[in-house]
Design brief:
It is a single chain. This protein has about 300 residues and is of the alpha/beta class. Helices cover about 35% and strands about 20% of the residues. The strands form 3 sheets. Strands 1, 4, 5, 6, 8, 9, 10, 11 and 12 form a 9-stranded mixed sheet that branches. It starts with 8 loop residues before the first strand and ends with a helix.
């Protein structure tokens, strides 16, 4: 049985200038670009839905917020409540908790970066475990060859977390901190107390370090069968699209289909899923129609 989620609120941070993907991102948010057959933000949004989250705040740049609103609306078609806020300047991931303070109120909150894609392996189990944990913070780490572009988790001989460094020049650890986080309500006050780093950003690493110092940081290590993409470069963008195409073609399954995720979570009915699938005519819509009709036949 899947553990009950202790989270019903989540934030998708889809801001930034996307300069590493210029010129493709000169006029539109990176998270609105397609990764194979759907907008990049769908993958992040589906992860939150699968975690049991029902209220979502999407944060983007002032010029891009209206585009996300056109894409997703208020979320009612998916059984969600989606609201929007602007991040005037990209001043760090942890700024999302300052911008979203009124949205979070007294609740726990998850945060996912809009350019992160997770799939396969034991990710669903790790996600459910994090969502069921009501206290402290949970980060997801993945061993990779060169983690120095990310936050890096240091552990002791017993595998317990002892330190997190943001983009270290040198490190003996291979554990990169991914762009998915679960926090109890203490994160609101922790984020409010942060000072900008040398990069003039409010660092998410400082938030995680605060939980670590309190003995309240939990770590979910992704297994080697779990794919993780941080789509920030042309190379990773292409790799992510190729991976999605390969999995969907070989397994006749979708990655990041928000309509299917909402249906599987019981947020919409098979009839509603079928109605959403009727709005266009392509392979993506046909997959959703097939899923809805199969559910109607067996239901």
């Amino acid at each position: 049985m899947t553990p009950r989620s202790a989270f019903h609120k989540g934030i998708v941070l889809a801001g930034g200038a996307g300069t590493r993907l210029h010129p493709a991102t000169k006029v539109v948010s990176k998270q609105l670009l397609p990764v194979y057959d759907k907008p990049m933000v769908y993958y992040a949004l589906s992860t939150l839905i699968e975690a049991g989250i029902r209220e979502i705040l999407l944060i983007s740049t002032p010029k891009d917020v209206p585009l996300f609103e056109r894409l997703l609306g208020g979320g009612t078609q998916l059984g969600l409540r989606i609201t929007y806020a602007a991040q005037p300047r990209p001043e760090g991931i942890a700024q999302a908790f300052q911008i979203g303070r009124d949205f979070i109120e007294h609740d726990n909150v998850a945060l996912i970066l809009g350019d992160n894609i997770f799939h396969g392996g034991k990710f669903a189990e790790r996600l459910a475990a994090a969502a069921a944990r009501p206290n402290g913070a949970t980060i997801f780490v993945k061993p990779i060859r060169d983690p120095r572009r990310y936050g890096v988790l240091e552990t002791d001989a017993a595998g317990r977390p002892v330190d997190i460094q943001e983009k270290p020049g040198e490190t003996g650890s291979k554990l990169a901190v991914t762009g998915l986080y679960f926090y109890d309500n203490q994160v609101v006050d922790i984020a409010a107390s942060l000072s900008p780093s040398a990069r003039n950003e409010l660092e998410i690493t400082d938030v995680n370090q605060a939980y670590l110092e309190r003995g309240a940081l939990h770590v979910e290590e992704l297994d080697t069968e779990t794919a993780w993409f941080d789509v920030g470069t042309h190379e990773s963008y292409l790799a992510a699209a190729n991976f999605v195409e390969m999995v969907q073609t070989e397994r006749n399954a979708q990655i990041g289909a928000i309509e299917e995720a909402a249906f599987q979570q019981g947020l919409i009915t098979a009839e509603q899923l079928l109605a959403l699938a009727q709005q266009c005519d392509n392979n993506y819509a046909q997959y959703l129609r097939d899923s809805a009709r199969a559910a109607l036949r067996t239901g």
